[in-house]
């Protein structure tokens, strides 16, 4: 041992094996995941003027005739479906514990993303029709995070 009480060649690291080590690694991994989720910068563009795969164009507008709010949790939207008309404000509130988002199938260029406890909104106009909304975070849609949006003229 040296004068500071440590052994030469040893670092400050230690190993915990067995079930205690597995539990500690799980807790550290979860805490790291939560820290990363809380620090995610919301840099995705919300301007949407592109034509989607279905030929659907989403246009940003200045005023809304109606609005609709979808609240996302693990792993569903509430309400699971809604109807709007004209120019409308689309609001996504994240009531979950991890990062979620809302996209509209067949409409490119629109992504509403929010960290837990936060929201995101855009005032838009879509062609009348039926649309599927979904969370594009890997695995979330497959776990049931999708819904329906009907746009009337």
Radius of gyration: 22 Å
**Low-confidence segments:** 10-16, 20-53
Percent strand? 35-45%
Task: State the CATH topology of the domain at 59-152.
Answer: Immunoglobulin-like
The run of helices and strands is: HEEEEEEEEEE
CATH architecture of the domain at 59-152: Sandwich
> What general outline do the C-alpha atoms trace?
globular
- Helix content bin: 10-25%
The major pleated sheet works out as: 5 strands, mixed
State the CATH class of the domain at 59-152.
Mainly Beta
Read across the widest sheet, the strand sequence of neighbours is 1-8-5-2-3
Structure summary, number of beta strands: 10
- Helix count equals 1
- What oligomerization state is this entry in? single chain
List keywords for this structure.
153 residues, mainly beta, Immunoglobulin-like, 5-stranded mixed beta sheet, globular
Q: Could you characterize the architecture of this molecule?
A:
The protein is mainly beta and 153 residues long. The chain has a domain at 59-152: Immunoglobulin-like. Helix content is 14%, strand content 35%. It is built from 1 helix and 10 strands. The chain has one helix at residues 18-38; strands spanning 59-60, 66-73, 76-78, 81-85, 87-94, 100-104, 112-114, 119-125, 129-134, 146-152. The strands form 2 sheets. A 5-stranded mixed β-sheet has the order 1-8-5-2-3, with no helix packed on it. A hairpin with a 7-residue loop joins strand 6 (100-104) and strand 7. The chain starts with 17 loop residues before the first helix and ends with a strand. Mean pLDDT is 76; it is low at 10-16 and 20-53.
